[in-house]
């Protein structure tokens, strides 16, 4: 069976590119620098559904994305989370947080309606991630 | 410099034992089966502060703890998160979630006051994790 991106994840995000294991998505919410990794494997819900070798790759992709967001945004803190209570398909949030952002110090998940990017800002945010991650 | 557990993490949890890299703590909140991994290294804030070899170990400790909670509680979903907006010391939450728990489908973090375990329930919860993780 082939990998298919969950429709809700597709609707809420802008594609950035593919790393070795994961699709990288930019959350279409300009309130936070927020990206998502989705391992391109069918029928995954939990981290422990991944074989150990792919868990290792996923951890390194989390690290690469965290480093990219840190370089781009110099945040107060990086938040990493695999929740999946609303969208079951395994996905990992990596969010650059600031001590003055609207949800601080709480988590960003489920906090009010997203504020979509303007087209030029979306393009710039995607380009920054593409350049640092080396994805296309 | 030696590892020292953050005072707030110590106050909010009950010790379970030490895995190869991380201290395992039971969150003292009987509303959720909720454990925390704290890599026993000084001065860590982000996952990317860990060397790559230890990130791999941490991922496997997350998997082991996820598996233990799944075996013990048969949850709807497992939530994994490294946030650190309140307590900066690197720590990873692993929470067994139910579709009828008080915070579902939102995250559990910062949702109302904890409901501490009764002593016998705390001992049973710790013993279950100790047996499945092989820690002491």
Model description:
- Two copies of one chain form a homodimer.
- With 136 residues, chain A is α+β, with helices and mostly antiparallel strands.
- Chain A has a single domain, classed as 2-Layer Sandwich (HIT family, subunit A), CATH 3.30.428.10.
- Helices cover 32% and strands 22% of the residues of chain A.
- Chain A contains three helices and five strands, in the order H-E-E-E-H-E-E-H.
- Chain A has a five-stranded antiparallel beta sheet with strand order 1-2-3-5-4.
- In chain A, a hairpin with a 6-residue loop joins strand 2 and strand 3.
- In chain A, helix 2 crosses helix 3.
- The mean pLDDT of chain A is 97.
- Strand 4 of chain A pairs antiparallel with strand 4 of chain B.
Task: Lay out the secondary structure.
2 copies of one chain form a homodimer.
Chain A: H1 7-12, E1 13-18, E2 22-27, E3 34-39, H2 52-73, E4 77-82, E5 92-97, H3 119-133
Antiparallel strand pairs in A: 1-2, 2-3, 3-5, 4-5
Helix pairs in contact in A: 2-3
Jot down its keywords:
HIT family, subunit A; homodimer; 136 residues; alpha+beta; 5-stranded antiparallel β-sheet
Low-confidence stretches of chain A: none
- The quaternary structure here is homodimer
Q: What's the architecture of chain A in CATH terms?
A: 2-Layer Sandwich
Question: What is the helical fraction of chain A, as a range of percent?
Answer: 25-40%
Count every beta strand of chain A, where a strand is a DSSP E run of 2 or more residues: 5
How far apart, in Å, are the first and last alpha carbons of chain A?
Answer: 24 Å
Q: Spell out the helices and strands of chain A N to C.
A: HEEEHEEH
Report the largest inter-chain contact.
Answer: A-B, 34 and 34 residues
| Biggest β-sheet strands, sense, barrel of chain A | 5 strands, antiparallel
Strand content of chain A: 15-25%
Large-scale geometry of chain A:
globular
Strand order within the widest beta sheet of chain A: 1-2-3-5-4
What is the CATH third-level topology name of chain A? HIT family, subunit A
- Structural domains of chain A: how many: 1
Radius of gyration of chain A: 14 Å
Query: What's the tally of helices of chain A?
Result: 3
Query: CATH superfamily of chain A, please?
Result: HIT-like
Assign the CATH class of chain A: Alpha Beta
């Amino acid at each position: 069976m082939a990998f298919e991106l969950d429709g809700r994840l597709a609707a809420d995000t802008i594609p950035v590119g593919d790393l070795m294991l994961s699709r990288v998505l930019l959350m279409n919410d300009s309130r936070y620098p927020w990206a998502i990794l989705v391992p391109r494997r069918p029928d995954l819900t939990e981290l422990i559904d991944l074989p150990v070798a792919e868990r290792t790759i996923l951890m390194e992709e989390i690290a690469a994305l965290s480093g990219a967001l840190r370089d781009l945004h110099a945040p107060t803190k990086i938040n990493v989370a695999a929740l999946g209570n609303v969208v079951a398909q395994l996905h990992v949030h990596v969010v650059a947080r600031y001590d003055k952002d609207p949800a601080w110090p709480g988590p960003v998940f489920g906090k009010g309606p997203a504020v979509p990017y303007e087209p030029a800002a979306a393009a710039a945010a995607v380009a920054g991630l593409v350049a640092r991650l080396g994805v296309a």
